[in-house]
Amino acid sequence: MTNWPIGLSTGCFYQSPLVECLETIRASGFSMVEVVFSPPHLDYRDANRVQEAAARLDALGMEAYSFHAPFADDIDISSLEPAGREHALAEILRAVEAAASLGVHYFVIHPGPENGDIPSREERLLRIENVCSILERVAARCGELGIQCVLENKLPHLMFGQSADLLWILTCLKGNRVGACLDTGHAHLAGELYPLVYKMAPYLRLLHVHDNKGHGDDHLPPGDGRIDWTALLKELAAVNFTGAFILELAGGDEPGIIMARARRARTYLRQRARRLALANHSQLLSHG
User: Fold this and answer.
1) What pLDDT digit, counting tens, does each position of 17-34 carry?
2) What structural domains and CATH numbers belong to the chain?
3) Is 32 helix (H, G, I), strand (E, B) or coil?
4) Residue 232 CA to its chain's centroid (Å)
5) Cα separation of 269 and 232, whole Å?
6) Residue 241 in contact with residue 273, Cβ under 8 Å?
7) 6-9 and 178-183 as β-strands: parallel, antiparallel, unpaired?
8) Angstrom distance (rounded) from CA 215 to CA 48
9) Cα(69)–Cα(143) distance, rounded to whole angstroms?
């Protein structure tokens, strides 16, 4: 498969109310979105705002494909303190309920705190055990609501930012209730984007798609950085990936400029996917 659906993360409008951004996104031909938590954008704690967003999505004929779980200093599912873990779990479960109200398929979560303090081996093992314990409970609630929980690979300098940590967590979980979301920009900065496709393949459900120049988490449109997108698409086709691409682009500009970048990124990916499909078809004919 090379005709992967392409959606847009609403994170590029995180400073504006979600309901005010959806029509702009729909007018650019994007009917599928990943909803991002941000108090000015959408507060998962506010049931009225969540219901308003769900109604607006439905009215515009749009699909909330996925929901990005909240991440903050005080939401640490690896915390060594039981009270800290329970607080993090409570916040995440509130977000799961909001995600269910929006009708999403996937609930994307970061496996651990958003800091670069790398602990000792002993503490790291304890924290990974805590992550697995909390994720079992999150995945169970997601399953009850018809959602799949997926783990995203983090920036390499953060705790649990290495692919070995992510895969360790995935393999320690029971059954196949938790999948993976491959963040292309994060993996590129870690220097392991292409092999990570194969490592994640049994768990891979969706991609967060953005580019960078190899130095910072720029969230550039594909083609504006140093990722070899043709090579990446080949890897995805080789492992028979059938999920969606969610464009995760930087904001900060006028909506028209942001959406122009999103359309350009979508066209860029579609063109390369089409070329790959034609090349694969030609190879099949030559071997036929």
Assistant:
1) 999 999 999 999 999 999
2) 6-287 (3.20.20.150)
3) strand
4) 17
5) 11
6) no
7) unpaired
8) 41
9) 16
